[in-house]
Backbone:
């Protein structure tokens, strides 16, 4: 089953962070001990995150799943009737699955399903107890977010109709949240994602979207800009989606690169944000800078710097190979790097699939046609990831050539394989950039504040 990157995004959600809630007289959250950190930089960064939800999201950005779950579980223990903690625990499940969604992960899949259902149940219970409008709005926000996360999972399984219904229900809940609290600008994030992608699908999925749900590209971009500029905690995820949109759909890769660079600057220890910048450099065809950035990524992985590990080395080699092939025409270097990726990546990993495809291209450049065709046939024998089989079929019929303008945009995506399920942690973020690549707080982009 082919899973195209745009298809991965159709069951959209608001994965949002809002203010902590006090329910039924429960006391406010007491500060928890700072999580273990191995360097002074880490201790300083984590110490600035004031509550378990924000701290959990900080860990998730690194990404450190166990630490993130521990923080969200602490919030749940303090506030068992608040859906917020359950939602973010669901987000950890989704993020962990999404990094290797092509692999069989039954335990994580069960956990995602259970946490999603728990979030929906707790949100419904909260409304049933008749709290004020703002509390009711938050319950709709988290229920819509959980439905969106579950919808994304259905997309990866090819269950399109169920995914559409989950996405549509999630969007309806977000609109209810805004109707109850028009200043809840974080809800614009999920609505923007939903509206944009349901209006920009292609093929069969576009036909289904027009029958079942109705998006609007321009409105979606406007909502994302609102979330970025005015949302309380939605800035980082809005930036992540704008990177994806500008690089792959709006054909403005330099805007995407500006945002990606800011994210990496905001989270300098996060391999996920480092790979975000690397992918943006690839999309922008910045080959020389891509070579430097991917080499630096590999070096940090080899040194096991926090929070890098040896497991990330194949990804760094993959992008360094692309830079060598396209930028410096170092074909033999590309072949060697892709061969290393194939040898060290997990057997079922998408990185191995794409390494076979790129090594086949390099063999074609070297006029080693039989070797190239062997790699393309291997791609056809593996699961189809973002059109990899279509590319392989095309090159079986027509040899790849660097003279053609075909720097493929089906490169093995990084953390954008499946959109990140977590929101911006405002307390840990420096002044960031908006959709235009400028300082967001210096140039408000959102429409006037809605009236209640």
Residues:
């Amino acid at each position: 089953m082919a899973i195209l990157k745009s298809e991965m995004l159709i069951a959209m959600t608001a994965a949002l962070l809002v203010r902590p809630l006090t329910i039924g007289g429960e006391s406010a959250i007491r500060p928890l001990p700072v999580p273990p950190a191995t360097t002074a930089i880490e201790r300083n960064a984590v110490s600035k995150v004031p509550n378990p939800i924000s701290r959990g999201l900080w860990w998730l950005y690194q990404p450190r799943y166990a630490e993130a779950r521990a923080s969200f579980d602490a919030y749940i223990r303090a506030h068992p009737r608040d859906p917020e903690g359950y939602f973010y625990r669901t987000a950890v499940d989704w993020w962990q699955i999404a990094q290797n969604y092509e692999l069989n992960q039954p335990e994580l899949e069960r956990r995602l399903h259970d946490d999603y259902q728990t979030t929906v149940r707790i949100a419904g219970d909260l409304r049933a107890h008749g709290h004020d409008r703002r509390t009711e709005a938050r319950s709709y926000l988290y229920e819509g977010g959980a439905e969106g996360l579950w919808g994304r999972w259905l997309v990866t399984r090819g269950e399109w109709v169920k995914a559409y219904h989950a996405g549509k229900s999630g969007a309806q809940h977000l609109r209810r949240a805004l109707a109850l609290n028009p200043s809840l600008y974080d809800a614009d994030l999920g609505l923007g994602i939903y509206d944009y992608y349901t209006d920009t699908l292609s093929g069969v999925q576009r036909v289904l979207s027009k029958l079942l749900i109705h998006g609007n590209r321009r409105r979606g971009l406007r909502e994302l800009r609102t979330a970025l500029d005015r949302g309380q905690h939605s800035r980082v995820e809005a930036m992540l989606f704008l990177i994806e949109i500008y690089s792959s759909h709006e054909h403005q890769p330099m805007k995407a690169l500006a945002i990606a660079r800011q994210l990496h600057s905001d989270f300098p220890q996060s391999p996920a944000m480092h790979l975000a910048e690397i992918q943006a450099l690839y999309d922008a065809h910045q080959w020389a800078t891509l070579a430097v950035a991917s080499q630096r990524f590999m070096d940090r992985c080899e040194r096991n710097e926090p929070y890098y590990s040896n497991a990330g080395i194949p990804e760094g080699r993959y992008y360094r190979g692309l830079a060598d092939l396209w930028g410096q025409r170092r074909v033999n270097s590309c072949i060697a790097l892709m061969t290393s990726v194939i040898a060290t990546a997990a057997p079922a990993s998408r990185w191995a699939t794409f390494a076979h495809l790129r090594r086949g291209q390099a063999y074609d450049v070297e006029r080693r046609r039989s070797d190239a065709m062997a790699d393309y046939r291997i791609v056809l024998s593996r699961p189809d990831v973002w059109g990899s089989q279509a590319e392989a079929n095309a090159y079986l019929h027509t040899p790849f050539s660097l003279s053609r303008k075909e720097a493929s945009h089906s490169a093995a995506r990084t953390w954008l394989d499946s959109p990140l399920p977590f929101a911006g942690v405002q307390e840990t973020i420096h002044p960031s950039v908006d959709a235009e690549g400028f300082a967001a707080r210096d140039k408000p982009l959102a429409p006037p504040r809605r009236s209640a």
Confidence is low (pLDDT under 50) at residues 1-38, 408-452. Residues 286-397 form a domain with the Serine Threonine Protein Phosphatase 5, Tetratricopeptide repeat fold (CATH 1.25.40.10).
